[in-house]
Design brief:
mainly alpha, two-stranded antiparallel sheet, two-stranded antiparallel ribbon
Length: 297
């Protein structure tokens, strides 16, 4: 199917001769943070979910928003620099600041958010794991919106497919299928809309599972459990979708058309991407959090 004609700029306006534009990706960050904050505040007001007075107050969350923004942006950018293109940025350090050109890593943002949670909790005298649990609960909201914005931006698309929902993403790279992929003359290279797969799994499914755990099974009464479930859920979802997602351009070559970092044999389909490699420690850490929460219940 053809890629929908969506302007990546949500809206723009001019002020004193300067044009200000808000892109869908930036809007996804803004709406995701605000929506997550409001849902988290609602959860803190329900003492029954915590088995007693909530250790986190709405005022704590209001104060934490700035910390969260800094953790996401700084961690996401530095993660992209270190995990995906360290050589390039070592040679061009000034480009690290060019965030408007794109280049954010979820795993880097995850680390940045973790640092922000620990630092803020220690500074405020609140339980680290309880704050982590409530942030883990609402994180899928931002993931959902961010992945939809990736689709709108026609970035992070998937591998070639012959499925009926394959999308002809614009751009020379997206329209360059591997040599072994059969295409008739003039036929577009259709690709998996992997951004939407991630939006569904990392966003809708994971958020639903965490809501069920919190409301149905009172998971917040066992500090660390929701955090562990989020780590495991995200790691599994990301690992699965990476089998349909095109690898990052810097890893792609004629002999490695899908951009895998670790290859298993000569098959183009057998290997692990950077996203999968970074997700495996998340899954292991999530299991550790779940086991720890059970032991200390």
């Amino acid at each position: 199917m053809p890629f929908p004609d969506i302007d990546p700029i949500a809206f723009q306006f001019s002020v004193f001769g300067f044009t200000l534009a808000l892109r869908w990706y930036a809007l996804a960050y803004i709406v995701g943070i605000i929506a997550g904050w409001r849902v988290a505040a609602m959860v803190t007001r329900r003492d029954a979910l915590w088995g007693g007075p909530s250790p986190i107050t709405p005022k704590h969350l209001e104060d934490f928003v700035t910390w969260a923004i800094l953790g996401i942006i700084l961690g996401g950018r530095l993660g992209y620099v270190l995990f995906y293109q360290p050589g390039y940025f070592l040679s061009n350090p000034a480009d690290i600041l060019r965030v408007w050109d794109g280049g954010m890593s979820f795993h880097g943002g995850f680390i940045g958010m973790g640092v922000a949670i620990v630092a803020f909790a220690m500074r405020s005298g609140i339980p680290i794991l309880s704050l982590a649990d409530i942030i883990g609960l609402v994180a899928p909201i931002g993931l959902l919106l961010g992945r939809v914005a990736n689709f709108v931006n026609a970035e992070l698309w998937g591998r070639p497919t012959d499925m009926p929902w394959g999308v002809a993403f614009p751009g020379a790279r997206a329209q360059t299928c591997p040599d072994f992929w059969p295409l008739a003359p003039g036929e577009p290279c259709l690709r998996h809309p992997s951004q939407l797969y991630e939006a569904g799994l990392e966003g809708i499914v994971l958020f639903g599972a965490l809501l069920l755990a919190v409301w149905g099974f009172k998971a917040l009464r066992r500090p660390g459990l929701v955090t562990g479930m989020f780590f495991i859920g995200y790691g599994l979802a990301r690992t699965f979708v990476e089998f349909f997602r095109q690898g990052d351009a810097q890893y792609v070559s004629v002999g490695n058309p899908f951009g895998q970092v670790i290859r298993f044999g000569d098959s183009a389909w057998a290997g692990l991407s950077m996203g999968q490699i970074l997700s495996l420690p998340m899954i292991a850490l999530g299991i550790a959090f779940v086991l720890w929460s059970r032991r200390n219940a």
